[in-house]
Amino acid sequence: MCLLIIAQRLTKYPVLLEQLAKVESKDYREETQRAHKAVKSFAMHVDTELAKLELNKRWDKIRKQIDRSSIGRLNKDDRFTYDDLIVKGAEDRREILCIGGAICHNSEQKAEDGREVVLVLFDDILVLLSSPNGRGGKYTFCDRGPDRCSVIPLRSLIIRRMPRNRSLFLVVAVDPFFDLIVVTFNSNNDLVQWKGAIEEAKENAPNYGMLPALHFDVILTIRSFVVEGTDAFSNSIY
């Protein structure tokens, strides 16, 4: 409650100083403008930190409901467990960046055949969780089959928006493994926010001993495949 009161008051100070700067004498106007800029910057910083706090609280709630026996997959050979979410030997835990719901389906499935998932974006991986079934249910790593991944290292991911709908292609390729996931969002706004968040996270992704980044020739091959195949996949899915 105290943090909320402070945050609410902080949002009023920039407005007050902006109005003061308009009527301030010439001798003090520049100083008032600097104060306005500083308070506005500080208010934005507090807002960002409060958003991070709420995001981490949401993740903690989800984390406590994850089935510890659930097994995710990086590819058909490498598994990923609940314990792997915590980076052993690192100074800090993975940083949580974004959480949201979507519909996930494989490239050969129609949209109505997809399943509801919870997307959890960390600073190095994107995790697909299946929502709990009923009250008291548990989150599990999304089971997409033995040759499909539910945990995606950002350094091996290519992302592309599908035309004429609210879906993204998530292309995972580390030779010889290849996977294509179609994720559909509730709104265009959600799609734009998630696309931006994933692209920014990939740009700054650390390597916690995960899969290596794609080689340049592989990137060109996959990008060509996605660009040329987008309409074909879009038509087959929808």
UniProtKB/TrEMBL annotation:
<feature type="domain" description="DH">
    <location>
        <begin position="1"/>
        <end position="49"/>
    </location>
</feature>
<dbReference type="GO" id="GO:0008270">
    <property type="term" value="F:zinc ion binding"/>
</dbReference>
<keyword id="KW-0862">Zinc</keyword>
<dbReference type="InterPro" id="IPR051632">
    <property type="entry name" value="Rho_GEF"/>
</dbReference>
<dbReference type="Pfam" id="PF17838">
    <property type="entry name" value="PH_16"/>
</dbReference>
<keyword id="KW-0479">Metal-binding</keyword>
<keyword id="KW-0597">Phosphoprotein</keyword>
<dbReference type="InterPro" id="IPR000219">
    <property type="entry name" value="DH_dom"/>
</dbReference>
<protein>
    <recommendedName>
        <fullName>DH domain-containing protein</fullName>
    </recommendedName>
</protein>
<keyword id="KW-0863">Zinc-finger</keyword>
<keyword id="KW-0963">Cytoplasm</keyword>
<dbReference type="InterPro" id="IPR011993">
    <property type="entry name" value="PH-like_dom_sf"/>
</dbReference>
<dbReference type="InterPro" id="IPR041020">
    <property type="entry name" value="PH_16"/>
</dbReference>
<dbReference type="GO" id="GO:0005737">
    <property type="term" value="C:cytoplasm"/>
</dbReference>
<dbReference type="InterPro" id="IPR035899">
    <property type="entry name" value="DBL_dom_sf"/>
</dbReference>
